[in-house]
Amino acid sequence: MKQIAIKQVIIAALILAMVMPALGQTTDLKELLSGKTIPLSLKLKDLDEQWRRVSIEGSGNWTEAYAAMLGGGNNPYYTKGQTVALAGETYLVTYRAPTALLNSMQIMLAQRQGNPPAEPQKLTADTALSLSLLNLRTVNSLQEIRLFNLKEELAANEKQGQGLATAIGEAKGRATAASSMNNLHQLAQAVHLYSNDWREEFPPMKDANSVKKALYPNYVSSEAAFLHPQTKQPYQPNPSLEGKTISSITNPNQVVMFYEATPADDGTRGVAFVDGHALVVSEKDQWP
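Given the sequence above, the corresponding structure tokens read:
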């Protein structure tokens, strides 16, 4: 493993040597943070033809991996090839734009809760770049090393943003659908709890308000569960179940108990059935 790591560092160094000048210097942390030797921040428009745009593989950054999974690519680094030595380690001096993507812990939590990821900030000529030191010993490889060009960089970022916006929109749609299905499932389960206390009878099912009065707050603790998370429309009950008992329904896995008030853009609608399960059905499907 050590031989592989050493070989990767050597390859990275050779690539740097071929495409940019090496201006190594020894410094200490206090001197570095003073900003006298190396600026702590720059603006994108401050970069010229002496700079290179570099992508990093194997940085171990969960945030970047998640961005790549969404189709957004990695947040690039900008460098002139300078290196500094700190505590016996060699670092490549780079700058990079801030990112609005979440850290790895927040990403995993958002995924568990069904929330979509945050959107990255759009690059402009005045975008601030922060100093970022890359430890050459821990970087697997440097990829897509090319001359920096401001117009090309902004155009590429615009295209990347469009692709990522599409991916994020799809993620938001999935999160909304998952949240709505969870609400429908809660309502279905609440009706069963209610029926256990009321001789298997359904609660009043005339309209959404009647159901809410019967179930909230004893059987459903959150008012939000009665509303679609995006449209904020109340879920509609099946009024034909009014006055009946659950045991009287011979096909509970086919009779709808609650449904979304309006279909989604693709013509589908979330519904909950008498037996307690919930799923998405097409408007073409036959359901009460």
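Confidence is low (pLDDT under 50) at residues 4-23, 59-73, 100-107. Try to locate this feature in the token string yourself.
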